[in-house]
Amino acid sequence: DAQDIDLIVLATATPDNTFPATATAVQAQLGIHHGAAFDIQAVCSGFVYGLSTADNFLKCGQHKRALVIGAETFSRILDWEDRTTCVLFGDGAGAVVLEAQEGGGTLEDRGVLSAHLRSDGRHYEKLYVDGGASRGQEVGHLRMSGREVFKHAVINIAQIMEEALEATGVEPNDIDWFVPHQANKRILDGTARRFGMTEDKVVITLDKHGNTSAASIPLALDVAFSDGRLKQNDLILLEAMGGGFTWGSVLVRW
3-state DSSP call for residue 176? Predict the structure, then answer.
């Protein structure tokens, strides 16, 4: 029931308005008049940032049940004359619910087991939007140095995945499903090979949705759950990298 939700964390780089937060609009439409609601902006890493943030609120006892959303309308910020970028992105939204439960403090607990977040603002201009409320009041368009993003993504994603595995003592072959941010098929394939994951363990929806930024991971989770692949107690590794640069990984027991 919507009234059971007492926290909404919405990850988006394309909010409806500069303010208030789009999360509060969702809260109102769901008829929820209690708890907290706010947006997170980490571009393509937004969902893993949001998942980690909500998990911490639940674990410290401040909230009991969180709705974590990734939602994007990148079509609003694409330069349709730039064919190197506009054909890559899509619009979409997905969500999950996290609930606080007593656990044994082991890897058999359900929910978020480990989360690791990073950022490096030195690479700001390699993937950004050249506009905003404080920059001439123009919406602006997405600008990306694709080769530079690819080069950093391959390194950063591998490192942050290794952190998640090392922190929990999990081996790559223990992972039931690898659900990456859907940005680039070469990155997805290369990362899976590096960790010895066979293609049948990787959830890929890039061909269905394109790159939907913060929405890509929850959309992929929905596809894999709906078609019967994801089952209760499966061990899932999520990862993403986005503008900033920001990147992160989350290990989840479904």
Answer: coil
Helix (H, G, I), strand (E, B) or coil at 238: strand
Confidence label for 132 from pLDDT (cuts 50, 70 and 90):
confident
Do the beta carbons of residue 233 and residue 35 sit within 8 Å? no
Domain extents in the chain: 2-99, 111-253
- Distance linking the first and last C-alpha atoms of the chain: 20
Alpha-carbon distance of 220 to 203, in angstroms, equals 7
Q: Which of 130-134, 182-186, 229-233, 248-252 has the lowest mean pLDDT?
A: 130-134
CA–CA distances in Å: residue 3 to residues 34, 67, 143, 162, 173: 8, 11, 40, 38, 39
2-99 CATH pick, 3.50.50.60, 3.40.47.10, 1.10.10.10, 3.40.50.261: 3.40.47.10
**CA trace torsion 11, 15, 16, 19 (10° rounding):** 100
* Residues noted as catalytic: 44, 181, 211
Q: Is there a contact between 76 and 138 (Cβ–Cβ < 8 Å)?
A: no
Supply the CATH classification number for the domain 111-253: 3.40.47.10
Distance CA 251, CA 254 (A): 10
Show the tokens assigned to 186.
């070469």
- Give 30's pLDDT tier (boundaries 50, 70, 90): very high
Mean pLDDT of all residues in 34-55: 99
Mean pLDDT value across residues 32-58: 98
What's 253's DSSP letter? E
pLDDT: which is higher, 167 or 133:
167
Only one residue has tokens 């969702």, namely 26
